[in-house]
Amino acid sequence: MHPIGEPLLVTAGRESGQAARRTVRERAAKVLADAEALDDVELMAAEAIANAVLHGSGLIRVAVRGGDRRVRVEVRDGGPTPREEGAHHRLDHGRGLAVIDALAAEWGLEQSPDETNLWFTVEAPAP
């Protein structure tokens, strides 16, 4: 697969995340023509970026790669933020990875103290 555009740099702001999500879809459209597959890419990108904003640290980098009717999106951040003592798990969070698991052809989460990389791939439907 080859890079589609330069990596995007995303801050924690809502508008930055929305712009990145739309740009990921536009770049994926260079490889995928199916509207449903593009909807899936956009939704998964939104979930992955939201995870980086909520649970990660530092600048968020989003890369899109494509080729042979397949797109891979990678969302990297500066690693997990320390949990606040006494923090409660919210029931309205935590569905992002389930969405990605349900929609992606493949996905993975690689994490170290210095970096988190959440990636997923989407394949074009068979002609």
UniProtKB/TrEMBL annotation:
InterPro entries: Anti-sigma-factor_SerPK (IPR050267), HATPase_C_sf (IPR036890), HATPase_dom (IPR003594). One of its GO terms (molecular function) is ATP binding. Keywords: ATP-binding, Kinase, Nucleotide-binding, Serine/threonine-protein kinase, Transferase. It comes from the Bacteria. Gene3D superfamilies: Histidine kinase-like ATPase, C-terminal domain (3.30.565.10). Residues 17-121 form the Histidine kinase/HSP90-like ATPase domain. SUPFAM superfamilies: ATPase domain of HSP90 chaperone/DNA topoisomerase II/histidine kinase. Pfam families: HATPase_c_2. This is ATP-binding protein. It comes from Actinomadura parmotrematis.
